[in-house]
Amino acid sequence: MVNESMAGLGRVRSVIRVLFEYGNKRKAEIGADKVFDFSLGNPSVPAPDCVNEAIKELLDTQSSLELHGYTSAQGDASVRKAIADYLNTEHGTSFGADSIYMTVGAAASLTICLHALVCYGDEVIAFAPYFPEYRVFAEGAGAAFKALPPTVDFQIDAPLLKESISEKTKAVIINSPNNPSGVVLTEETIKAVCAVLKEKSAEYGHPIYLITDEPYRELVYDGVKVPFVSRYYDDTLVCYSFSKSLSVPGERIGYIAVTPEMKDAADVYAAICGAGRALGYVCAPSLFQRVVARCLGQTSDISVYKHNRDLLCGALTEYGYTCVKPDGAFYLFVKALEPDADAFCERAKKKELLLVPADSFGCKGYVRISYCVSTKQIENSLPAFKALAEEYKQKEL
Ligand code: PLP
Questions:
Q1: Beta bridge partners of 132
Q2: Does residue 189 share a domain with residue 61?
Q3: Are residues 226 and 95 in the same domain?
Q4: What is the pTM of this model?
Q5: Which residues contact 388 (CB under 8 A, 6 or more apart)?
Q6: 117 & 224 share domain
Q7: 141: Cβ–Cβ under 8 A, 6 or more apart, which residues?
Q8: Residue at which a domain ends, from 230, 258, 293
Q9: Which of 17, 154, 174, 241 is the best mutation target for the ligand 1 pocket, counting ligand atoms within 8 Å of the beta carbon and taking the most?
């Protein structure tokens, strides 16, 4: 007899994975260049040179026993210090090595934080559209997951948040730049959310933690700034990943940063170490801890994503689609041309366009298009997008 809820999770595959596998099958049937697969958020730009240079330098200069050996459970102390120093220089914060816990990417950062914070009966709030795994992570940690509906501009409705927080609310998750909308939360939004959390924490007499999921922090265009949330709210936990900024998602490396001004920072950090231990998330990959410490502040060539965004967003708008021009990440969130996004995606599939219906992101009637693909794929797909829009116009006549 197995744990049925785990078996259930294992059996139900994500919509994105199903679509990706369909795409691979279809490519084998008709040729890879004929299928326009916009399903996955896998970086399409190679890692910056600093990644390979750091690997080579480490292999040449360090003992392989040390390089491939265990680090301390929370990560190598000099790596954690390098990350803390970098954050402090960038954001005027005061992190120390003991504010940082190295993880295997943002998914682990989130899971560890939720397990560290949630007690039986607690509630975790997120905002649609949200990364679908939030529900899995929050429920897996024993919380009730509450998703608030989207606003028209995909910012956050602070008065609604205020109404929705209860005594049981332990944490709120935000994600900026956002997957799937590409929207960056403005400073005004962050301030409004933090004001609500401060007020409600005081009212209930316990902190409501703000978990900020930031794998796309550096992927922003046209000089848009992403406010650093720890500076606005002491009870903030930053969940970071190098997967997208350095194009190394398969290497599984990221960190949690606990805001040092948090009143119970020492207890929260201890709970993070405990959750890491209980979940088996100790000693993140040793070689890549050292690699990322040497690449802080560097990114892949994001100008490619900006070019893709401008090309796709411009063309789709011209064909009659509606989308919010994304300021960051590498996703375009587009209104389906009929209320049922699944039906729209099925129709798109007939034109070999693989788009993700956004119902699982908590947002009905939208689709997500990952534009972290080759520019050639976008160029080649445009006639299909145009034909699809024309098909709907014909239906209306
Ligand atoms: N959070 C968001 C919003 C994401 O889009 C992703 C991955 O796509 C993750 C977390 C997980 O990132 P990682 O690969 O670093 O675990």
A1: none
A2: yes
A3: yes
A4: 0.97
A5: 337, 347, 348, 351, 353
A6: yes
A7: 111, 114, 115, 117, 118, 124
A8: 293
A9: 241
Which H/E stretch holds residue 337? none
Distance 331 CA to ligand 1 centre (A): 13
Instruction: Clarify whether residues 276 and 218 are in a common domain.
Output: yes
> Which tokens belong to 169?
């609310």
**What is the domain count for the chain?**
2
CATH number at residue 217: 3.40.640.10
Q: Is the CB of 215 under 6 A from ligand 1?
A: yes
Task: Give the C-alpha separation, 241 to 107, whole Å.
Answer: 8
| Centre of ligand 1 from the C-alpha of residue 30, in Å | 31
> 10 and 101 in one domain?
no
- DSSP code per residue over 191-237: HHHHHHHHHHHHHHTS--EEEEE-TTTT-B-TT-----GGGT-TTEE
Handedness of CA 302, 304, 309, 314 (dihedral sign): positive
User: Could you tell me the CATH number of the domain that includes residue 360?
Assistant: 3.90.1150.10
In this structure, the answer to whether residues 197 and 330 fall within a common structural domain is no
Domain assignment of residue 131, given as a range: 49-293
**pLDDT tens, per residue, the chain with 397 residues:** 999 999 999 998 888 989 999 999 999 999 999 999 999 999 999 999 999 999 999 999 999 999 999 999 999 999 999 999 999 999 999 999 999 999 999 999 999 999 999 999 999 999 999 999 999 999 999 999 999 999 999 999 999 999 999 999 999 999 999 999 999 999 999 999 999 999 999 999 999 999 999 999 999 999 999 999 999 999 999 999 999 999 999 999 999 999 999 999 999 999 999 999 999 999 999 999 999 999 999 999 999 999 999 999 999 999 999 998 999 999 999 999 999 999 999 999 999 999 999 999 999 999 999 999 999 999 999 999 999 999 999 877 5
Closest atom of ligand 1 relative to the 249 alpha carbon:
14
* 61 and 43 housed in the same domain: no
Helix, strand, coil percentages for the chain (3-state, nearest 5): 50, 15, 40
